[in-house]
Design a protein that fits this description.
The protein is α+β, with helices and mostly antiparallel strands and 173 residues long. Helix content is 21%, strand content 36%.
Length: 173
């Protein structure tokens, strides 16, 4: 478990009616953990990795990604988790402008403070940064767009990559 200790409510019970509209809550059970041989009433279940509630999901995703990488796990799952757990680099407008252009049948366009990929009459795909020159398709983190640069640093091509290993390379016009 990742996060904070649970609330500590373990003992089952229910209200029993009394006279004049009153009732009393009576505990009717007290579970015992097969691991600790104890009860968590009042103390809660302690997390394996203690982090603030706001950070729990991201930390759990990072731990899952780490285990997938160690185990050589499935590429699609790993790419999805990477997209969720990687802090995107700052997207300076100069960097974005350098990527905009026509790459064969693929067009990269600046939209607001980001990029989109357009291919023919298909709907445009918004790109989200993962690293310098590496993006994923918003809504499908298993699809990647990697920009290739010349030794001089000019953008020369892009690769569309899928988690199953397929790659389509498009040279800049």
């Amino acid at each position: 478990m990742v996060g904070k200790a649970s609330g500590g409510a373990a003992n089952a019970g229910r209200p029993f009616p009394l006279d004049d509209g009153f009732s009393v809550f009576v505990s009717t059970g007290s579970p015992v953990s097969p691991i600790t041989k104890g009860n968590w009433e009042g103390a809660g279940v302690q997390p394996d990795v203690a982090v603030a509630s706001a950070d729990a999901l991201r930390r759990a995703q990072q731990l899952a990604l780490g285990r997938l990488v160690e185990a050589g796990g499935d590429t699609a799952a790993r790419w999805s988790l990477e997209a969720l757990t990687t802090e995107p680099p700052a997207q300076a407008q100069v960097v974005l402008d350098a990527l905009v252009g026509q790459y064969g049948v693929v067009a990269i366009e600046a939209v607001g403070d980001g990029l989109q990929l357009r291919q023919g009459r298909r709907p445009p795909l918004r790109l989200q940064p993962l690293a310098t020159d590496l993006y994923f398709v918003e809504g499908d983190p298993t699809r990647r767009v990697r920009f290739e640069r010349t030794p001089a640093g000019e953008v020369a091509a892009l690769e569309l990559r899928w988690a199953d290993g397929n790659v389509a390379r498009h040279v800049r016009e």
